[in-house]
């Protein structure tokens, strides 16, 4: 069958035929409907993500970790036609957190990630997977399900913040977040999903980038009653919660002195490539104001499930707004092209399988 | 204007004219669209709920605490035409929890509750309220917003359980609740809202009553992929989470020995009228199995907001199923009739204001 | 060597010779210094604790789970002469909580407990144990270490309460417990250890029993600035936290209506033998006041470690008061006698090994 | 009476006579026994701590926030002769956290701090204070009570970490911290108090400085079974928990890549004066490993109470070791001298009042 194939750590990508997996007792056969593309995919294709590697015994890796699939042959819980999304990371099998289904907190680093490291991904016509790694998506969500994987990581990060911020009273006097501001640095798909989720939690939301918004960004940010700010102009952001999706220390370190007391900073982005000075005054700011910073990666299956609920919610509340996050649909033959360059005005590009 | 008026602690109810409130700086004028009826309303009408009382300076009480209203004149955040639901309890103004907006945990008991104790309710053509007590409901939810108030109490109880059960690992090995069973005792509106919410959280859900399900109950329970059991027949329920909405010790005490280890019991119902023996063996069960019981009442504004998200979710996922919870719509003139008897097959009866 | 031997589920106890265990790689050899006696031991001896059983392959059980031992031959962390206390419960090896070292929350019930079910206890001259089951006790604590095992269970229960009560603000306006009252039902060793720990946490403490205090009880209760109340007389207890160490529903159910709002009840005792009516009004009390009840059993190794800190603390603060908890020391030959009757004025009876 | 007086924001310090406060209803009169000196005091004296200011209506500030006092005239709870320590920060009176007694999380910044900003300190013969700000210290602790104020801040920081790290499983497989390493950067009084507390919690503890240990540091670090490392030599620290007491980004940023997954970094120090580059790789480390950083300042009254328990514990466990933290005792006349220079080999210098 056709698949999008890479050779990490070498650069390059091609669409070519790969052998089908032999049927396996207890595994579910899934036909791929959509794959989302993200920075990690492009990082692998460019040869820059040095941790990427083929599965044991293979000299190639099938790409793809953002997936919407359809069950071809059902088993116990899953029935033919059900929409499913596979979780990306699979636990190391030995550490305490992996044994709890919290492989996103794997202590050993010996996990695999489909389409990324040590396990084939889903940019292929069909694939087999164990039921325990498959998250069911209601049919009413339809193709929006392809957003679930990136969203799951957002959900995990926000769950982290909600839990840790109970270290003190971090709500308004009416118990909500209505008096609080969350600022999201970056307006890519992850930035916009954070914005949607934070709005749903009740925050006032600011989306920040170093440029004016694109048309689609404007539409989405206004549609959810958030605010876009161009940080290349003089702006005054004073957030209670800061989310960095950029990976640039130069983006978030200058905001630290403006954060509200007891605030939190989520570090999510990793693709920056720079160094930026942290001063003793910055440290004093963090200390004197009890500010918390939490790095967050990956997601548990429960975060995927919570992500389904967010998507249903947004579909009901914002009608067609969510579809606008998918700015381009391509055929698999076009994958090598869209995997080697960022498209103009792109939020999420997806590969459609017929 | 017309209002549904009671004279607690005396029995009785009538629809009659009451004076309009004078406009008040900073208050929002709201036209009532729907009122839900619940056991508390009927308890007040029957004269049995002895804590019910008129506002200071009044010799009558306007009934009504389940509300969907529409803003007549907007102010800052709220605009004409916005749908809103007022929170029921208003804090004592002095205790620590009330000052945090957690009047549901009021320490003094000196709170008021609209339509119940010390404050007029919303069974009237229109009412004034402070913005801070009003929860905005997306227009896409429409009349389902009338379910928000009862749902908010369910949300609060489930938040309690999710937080306290982090005392140990209380999830499946994949981090979800997919291997766990929640049993809900009672299939009234509260029981069904619990079932919907628990299903959304990922539990296997059993709805239990001492009789077979009504047609609507069957439809809803099956529609959400839960299971109805008739406990007047021999059944074997072994829940991880037990929710009592009946208020009958005879309903939940016999289930204690069957609960899974580390399980939790939510006590929500209060309308039972009986005594049931708790044995030393029951106590041993609770101790040896680390079982937790939590009584839960009322809700914070943040629980109302989370309730909005549940409703949007269910609307998207279950389409028209939710509307079936509203089994009867009556005019205000019929209010005294439906407030003095439980209707056959009733889940939620609502008063429609034109 | 000499050991105290029982034949559960049959009644009876004898001191007799048992074979020594063969040395085992990686196990630590420990000489027993003291054994504490508790209700569980007497329950096994009386034949009433039907869950007690010998280890696989044995037709007898060596009694003893409250221990102070001394290392005979050291290994890595433990050195000759170190004082140690073995944890009682050993995990099932399969459930999630046991794998986390939280065998006190074992989900399967397939654990063993030394001296109680399925594993030999420590009422013998010496025993072998794995280092991971041994808690080191500072030499400065000396014989007080024999109190560690019962104390560990108290610590676990209080940790449970501290965690779960963060569901809302459950502290005074100065962030302490200084305005709050804890009432402990029962003045046996467990009741007194709870009282000491609660006092250390900052609560006002009431120790309640159905009789006047013994002389030693008075001395200890006064020495820690707590208050003893005789509940056979008319008393008015209004606790924020209630701890039942009696196992009698008739002891704690009547106190429920007097509990402060948002309060908590710890169920710890299991030895009652009765039934007591819980009324719908009791249920309403629990619901309307957000009261939480938590059954608590056993302890993790971390609770033993926290227990060491409590003991050190009390030794420094209360000087010789703690020694008074040990009301009698007997030789092993007297064990059958003191295991078959409760001694007058007894708090903790211990067996001294020479 | 005699007092140590400063004129912030101007540099300088003198011992001079100040008027006594008039007796005030409900206030407790306390005779000062000991004052501890810390970097904040010296920062004020040097004129570098620009936030320091006299009380309203005064043109001078009495220094002193580390105190051990003795009650001269008792009231309700406090009796003549009781040892007390006043809390330093007094809430703003308006924000939610201050109203909870968590002025360490003040949201407005409008708090005062005795001896630091807006309120007179305790470097004077006697002072009046409200009982609610006074923490009672057991007489058995004696002069060690002067360590309570610095310790309270350590306790608060560790409480923060213990709470937030429950976001995942962050313990060893036996539920303790015995397999985990905490590294403390800095070996001043705060660094050593952190080390003592972390050891008590069960961590393996490394104390790090950029130089070899002094004799007293060696004695204490070895006495508590911790390890001192000189980071000016090549060392390999791989901590689960990192505590920075130095305030130097150049101290902790280079350790980030060596931290264990899911680890935490406490920022406590503020006195560094430099800038150090944080690279995108550092950010990636934080993200990919779920690392959490928390700034922590000040303490609540409950942290002072927990600090008392630590001190009692250490007194019982380590005998005279704790006294060694007090490396010098001076008369008040010598205060200006010791406030203007760091003494060689100093850990804690105290002023003794007769």
TrEMBL record, chains A, B, C, D:
Coiled coil feature spans: none
Query: Annotated Gene Ontology MF terms?
Result: D-glucose binding; glucose 1-dehydrogenase (NAD+) activity; glucose 1-dehydrogenase (NADP+) activity; NAD+ binding; NADP+ binding; zinc ion binding
**Enzyme Commission numbers on file:** 1.1.1.47
At the top level, the lineage of the source is Archaea
Q: Which residues cross the membrane?
A: none
Residues covered by the Glucose dehydrogenase C-terminal domain:
143-352
The entry's NADP(+)-binding residues are 187-190, 209-211, 268-270, 296-298, 342
The record's similarity note reads: Belongs to the zinc-containing alcohol dehydrogenase family. Glucose 1-dehydrogenase subfamily.
Protein name, per record: Glucose 1-dehydrogenase
